[in-house]
Amino acid sequence: MRSATLRSGRKFSLALVALLLAACSGSGGEASGPATLTWWHNRTTEPMKSVWQKIADDYHQAHQDVSFTVEPIQNEQFQTKVPLALQSSTPPDLFQQWGGGQLADQIRSGKIAEIAQAQLGEYGKGWQVNGKQYGLPYQMHAVGFWYRKDLFTQAGITSPPSTLDELNAAVAKLKTAGLVPIAIGGKDRWPDAFYWGYFAVRQCSIDALKNAVAKTELTDPCFTKAGENLKTFLDTKPFQDGFVGTPAQQGAGSSAGMLANGKAAMELQGDWDPDVMTALTEDKQLDSKLGWFPFPTVPGGQGDPSVLLGGGDGFSCTTRAAKACEGFLQHLVSEEIQKKLAETGSGLPVNPAAVASLKTETHKTISEHMAKAKHLQFYFDTAFPTNVGQALNDAIANFFAGQGDPSTITQSVSKAAAGNK
């Protein structure tokens, strides 16, 4: 993210929420009157698909001059659909936005509306470019290991791993018990990047992480070492057979579906994973069977163990109906809506008044880790400019498939960045 590496927003002030978006919209010259907002979001499954629709319907009831055409779009399609839409004459008025280098790229279209500075503490900075606000987060996210308590018990694992050695030992025990240790959605490529990203976070100092994003480079030796550590981990063969062709979130055979249905013991995913899994299983007791632990420490690493890999979900407005869109964004970070979103288990609230409404104690635990983290490293593919992030993800995915070496990953960033100059 532009300020692509964010710390947790524990300094967030509730008093400032009331000031949110008090200034004028940066859209300029927008005609007044009724507006119908075309809204692209990535929640294509229940319950969140209906939650978003109800939020839109309720907002329209309270603001008759604002209506919505809601278009849920599969998460992976945003990478191609948004750039194309911004080149057209009819982009969506409101669309999913992850900030960072991708947002900076999108601003070049001239169709992203500047909005008032959102008083969301450190969280809001992830949707700023050159000090100007071009979107708002409605949820933050942290990646960690989700695991099946019942399968851990079956394999004789008495506590979640806290070190890499303990994780490797758990993988071995699960294999001995005839279980798939870890599911991964390699077909979608970005889940692979979580592993390289976390090995980098555990190997590299906070300063090294910040410098890498600021300079769009991975020249610090710690990033090559992260790739070497990843290779050693891959050599333990912790994933399901055919993981390269497994989707992450689509269908019962996806990596999320495997965990949901007890076909695998772990998955390295975001805090949203249980929300995804709900639509992929008939098990109504799933939440009680799931546990979570942060990515383990790595021997010899210089990374602060409190650092998390994550990001956030937000929305940006385009210029056609920016004022109406901006008002809706303000609504999404209100205490009322933040509590409703927290109850779904789909993410961590940006409004601290809603933390108590999180769906499970596990999500509250993740929120506590977020609050204590000395640094939140935004997903590298989002922190970097779009083409650089895509090149990095491709190199990591190829590495998972047995192609290239640790230096190939770091060099992918330098090569892609050179193309931007």
The first-level CATH class of the largest domain is given as Alpha Beta
**Uncertain residue ranges:** 1-29
At CATH level 3, the topology of the largest domain is D-Maltodextrin-Binding Protein, domain 2
Q: Helix- and strand-based class?
A: alpha+beta
| DSSP, total strands | 12
**Mean pLDDT rating:** 90
Q: State the domain count.
A: 2
| Percentage beta strand | 5-15%
Based on CA atoms alone, the radius of gyration comes out at 21 Å
Separation of termini? 19 Å
**Count of discrete alpha- or pi-helical segments spanning 4 or more residues:** 19
Helix content: 40-55%
Any idea what the CATH architecture of the largest domain is?
3-Layer(aba) Sandwich
CATH superfamily of the largest domain: Periplasmic binding protein-like II
Signal peptide: 1-31
Protein name: Extracellular solute-binding protein
Keywords: Signal
Plain-language structure description:
The protein is of the alpha+beta class. It has two domains: 5-141 and 310-378, D-Maltodextrin-Binding Protein, domain 2 (3-Layer(aba) Sandwich), CATH 3.40.190; 154-308 and 395-418, D-Maltodextrin-Binding Protein, domain 2 (3-Layer(aba) Sandwich). Helices cover 43% and strands 14% of the residues. It contains 19 helices and twelve strands. The strands form two sheets. Strands 1, 2, 3, 4, 7, 8, 9, 10, 11 and 12 form a ten-stranded mixed beta sheet that branches. It has a two-stranded antiparallel ribbon with strand order 5-6. β5 (128-129) and β6 form a beta hairpin. α8 (190-203) crosses α18 (386-400). The two termini are 19 Å apart. 52% of the residues are buried. The model is unreliable at 1-29 (pLDDT under 50).
